[in-house]
Write a structure and sequence with these properties.
heterotetramer; A: alpha+beta; Aldehyde Oxidoreductase, domain 3; eight-stranded mixed beta sheet; globular; C: Ubiquitin-like (UB roll); five-stranded mixed beta sheet
Chain lengths: ~150, ~150, ~80, ~80
Amino acid sequence: MKDKKPMKSVFKEGAITSEFIGNSIYKHQTKTSIGAHNIFLGQVRADDIDGKIVSAIEYTAYEDMANQKFHEIRESAFEKFELTCMHIYHSLGTVKAGEICLFVFVSSPRRKVVFEALEYIVEAIKADVPVFGKEIFEDESHQWKVNS
Amino acid sequence: MKDKKPMKSVFKEGAITSEFIGNSIYKHQTKTSIGAHNIFLGQVRADDIDGKIVSAIEYTAYEDMANQKFHEIRESAFEKFELTCMHIYHSLGTVKAGEICLFVFVSSPRRKVVFEALEYIVEAIKADVPVFGKEIFEDESHQWKVNS
Amino acid sequence: MHINIKYFGQIAEITQKEAETLEFSGNLVSDLLEVLNSKYENLKNKDFKVAQNQELVSFETELSGQDIALLPPFAGG
Amino acid sequence: MHINIKYFGQIAEITQKEAETLEFSGNLVSDLLEVLNSKYENLKNKDFKVAQNQELVSFETELSGQDIALLPPFAGG
């Protein structure tokens, strides 16, 4: 029942919509061994930096390496945790403030597993995947985002 | 910006739909101080118990006490964690295998907070809220669910 | 005193009712449970907690409120 | 040997290109970085990591692969 597909791209052009997420949840309702889902969503913040407001982030990536890293994170999470399935999507290109740029979705028969697994996966993505973010201000100047 | 509404019922009749969840995510896209959402979904499992398959759970609750407990959990989570908002929905009545009976949604500027807060809230719900579940088998016999 | 008692889940299955009002003169929650145990034979072996005015209390608690609930194991989520 | 170098994010801003191929005869990643530092003056003060054939390597690593990437701080999610 493990949903281990061959390596495919995690990247999507532009924001990840709430319809896409709702639909992804819907598709799991046929998997009746699942008792718990845990979903992480990264949303672009309209940060105020020295009086300038972030209006969007423009994402780029070293795509081949990033997909390889996502694949390794996926394999390692399936090894560590008893997951029924796992999905990761990350935006490339422009994502406006308030829009969603990262969608991580894990499911398992039991809840304890999904909490541990989701945090593990999100922290690994932040640390290991070569994705770069250009924070665009309302006046069209920019700065480069750094994960903390 | 804290979304502290007066006490209201957490209960919804029947399953929580993926459209409802998608719509709830959509509504948060105007809150541009949010950087991270974390969502827990409880889904009814078609457990096999001595050869009989669970086809649905029928939920009842001591509603007044349960809403009071949900309110206390909510207040205590807002005190402990820097959350922008928090939403909890629980089903009453019949929820079929594969359908969603619990939806907990927390949002914050930063991700570390949402992981801690979500697990805290879900564990508190499981431990402290007087909700009862009758597992209905395909042959219409039943047993009473106990949280583990 | 009048005591309103609520039953839930498998406890309500045993009592065959969701609520009743009893006239009662004991002091402790355990005194009340004794009465209920003799009234509902199958209650004895069941696992439940007691809430008094919507707060869980131990069986040694003094009866102070009029609302008592017998709560089987929680199964939320 | 031929080395294909990729630049990303703020590093690509400095080099004003996303990739280039250099003819190079040094041994270590650090030798290559010395060449790049003199070619792109503003590179020196920048924070970046180096990937060789899609794996992060220390600057003391021997150059073995043809694909080198200069990666500024990650900002996924």
